[in-house]
Amino acid sequence: MKKILIIKFSAIGDVFMAMPHIDAILSAHKKDEVWLLTSRLFMDFFARHPRLKAVELDPGRRISKNSALGRTLWARRQKFDAVCDLQGNRVSRRIARHSGAPVRAGTQPSGAYNFHPERPYTNQSRTHVTGRLDETLESAGLPRSGKGFSAYPSPEDEKKVAEWKEKNGVADGGHAILHAGSSKGWESKRWPGSHYRDLALRLEAEGVRCVWVGGREDREINREMARWAGIDATGHFSLMGLYLMGKNAKLAVCNDSAPMHIMAAAGAPTYGFFGPTSWMKNHASGQRRRVIQNDSPCSPCFSGKCPPDRNHMCLDAISPGEVFDTIRRDLPLS
């Protein structure tokens, strides 16, 4: 039996995009022992996985067993036969390089790996993130990813989501997940709150209950949105809980964010706004036709704040009516 290490710990949306690739590695190593080095956020998500042994990495810690140094030493002691680095940053490269594994596959040409795609992957690359991960797997003789992945919620996860739905009058298949926020430092990714409000009012008029999701940084905007339409569910769900909310959602409308990727992974029809970032590289998996963007000459700028003279034209110019009509042409709402 061989020992295989997969490295993938951030960001949240990127980990969800990589889950079909994790399944592909598992399918190629059915009789082997497969470990996943991931962040604390995902330890609960993978806790019930029957094939993966998940261990925590905390790159922000200086000295501990879960720090970058601690996990580098741990990986070397484990004597892995192969390391597949789906993260591709400085920390993961160091772990792969010093693991001592005879097979080391990574996402970028680097001396840390002996298997990798030939071309560097940059902001100017036009290949989607999932395509790049497929290239990484193929470089090591592994199969490309399939559609979807296996998730293993606990009965407690399912019960908590069911109870929340019952308490808030949210019927299965009758709700929309909306994420009007963004991660810290990326305010430029936000479609205007007034536009989200108007879209939510239109959806609720069609009988679609709107659920506003997000983390601490989204609390203020979600509270404001829920004053007009829908339910503020900020911070109510774990990653698995949010995934379960998406499993039978009618649709999701999100900025380029973690919830966008979680909703797509759950199988919800997911409409994603793109302006400052590249939709070609980062659109929700399987949702290319639901990308919402306009052809602003400055897009993508990869800037967290829009210069005042640009007036956020890449997203502000997309009207709620346009988005609602796009959804209505695509899905039966009532």
Automatic annotation (TrEMBL):
PANTHER family: TETRAACYLDISACCHARIDE 4'-KINASE-RELATED (PTHR30160). CDD domains: GT9_LPS_heptosyltransferase (cd03789). GO terms for cellular component: cytosol. Keywords: Glycosyltransferase, Transferase. It comes from the Bacteria. One of its GO terms (biological process) is lipopolysaccharide core region biosynthetic process. This is Glycosyl transferase family 9. Signal peptide: none annotated. It comes from uncultured Desulfobacteraceae bacterium. InterPro entries: Glyco_trans_9, LPS_LOS_Heptosyltrfase. GO terms for molecular function: ADP-heptose-lipopolysaccharide heptosyltransferase activity. Residues 99-126 are annotated as: Disordered. It holds the Pfam family Glyco_transf_9.
